[in-house]
Amino acid sequence: MSPRVLVLAGPSGAGKSRLARRLHALHGWPVVQLDDFYRELGDPGLPMSPLGLPDWDDARSWNLPEALDALEQLCATGRAEVPVYDIATSAVTGRAELELDGHPVVVAEGIFAAESIPGLRERGLLAEAWCIRNSPWLTFGRRLARDLSERRKPPVTLWRRGHILRRAEPGIVAAQAALGAVPMTVREAEARAHRLLVGSGPQAPGAQAGRDEHGTTREAGG
């Protein structure tokens, strides 16, 4: 079977990058950081917020066609060149080459990763798609700590944006689920990754998993 893409979506700060690194460490799966496909400052296609800053929470702020082309090239040829983006300066600072090294799965993670699901499905490249979720307050704390440590933007901007995202998180998860990303915790995702590795095959979003009254996934019959 040809390589396919595992999409890790979810709100900013939910733990997608940490999970992607763990999947790479455990299984060797290459990771494409879709946030590196953000548009650069000055790009006419980059939406701006009322504060006069790039609106990083608008899906139009990243280049979906370029990301899809890179994923397709990686799966088809075993290698692809991707941008390296610095969010603090809103600019591409270099290029990096990724190699598949014979692995059957490519991990694509980012806050707009769910937007890639229809295109990947059309190209026959979709393995599965997951929306990593926590409680909104936990996500808020993790996101703020990360953004402050990386000095992504001024602290006041990060604080204000963080609370906007906290209030919007249930809607973000619902919208990504509507695109085909199955909501789940990191622990549930790790268990599901093991099944994907051992050859249980991809599952249609929601086909083999239901949700309990708290919105977490549970296996059918469980």
Outline the structure in words.
With 222 residues, this protein is an alpha/beta fold. It has a single domain (4-200), classed as P-loop containing nucleotide triphosphate hydrolases (Rossmann fold, 3-Layer(aba) Sandwich). It is built from six helices and nine strands; from the N terminus they run E-H-E-H-E-E-E-H-E-H-H-E-H-E-E. It has a five-stranded parallel beta sheet, sandwiched between helices. A two-stranded antiparallel ribbon has the order 3-4. The protein has a two-stranded antiparallel ribbon with strand order 8-9. The radius of gyration is 17 Å and the shape is globular. The two termini are 29 Å apart.
**Main structural class:** alpha/beta
Label the overall shape.
Answer: globular
Oligomer: single chain
Query: What are the segments in which pLDDT stays under 50 over at least 5 consecutive residues?
Result: 200-222
In short:
The chain is of the alpha/beta class and 222 residues long. The chain contains 6 helices and 9 strands; from the N terminus they run βαβαβββαβααβαββ. Residues 200-222 have low confidence and may be disordered.
Chart the SSEs and their pairings.
Layout: E1 4-9, H1 16-27, E2 31-33, H2 64-77, E3 79-86, E4 91-99, E5 105-109, H3 117-122, E6 126-132, H4 136-149, H5 155-178, E7 182-184, H6 186-197, E8 209-211, E9 217-219
Parallel strand pairs: 1-5, 1-6, 2-5, 6-7
Antiparallel strand pairs: 3-4, 8-9
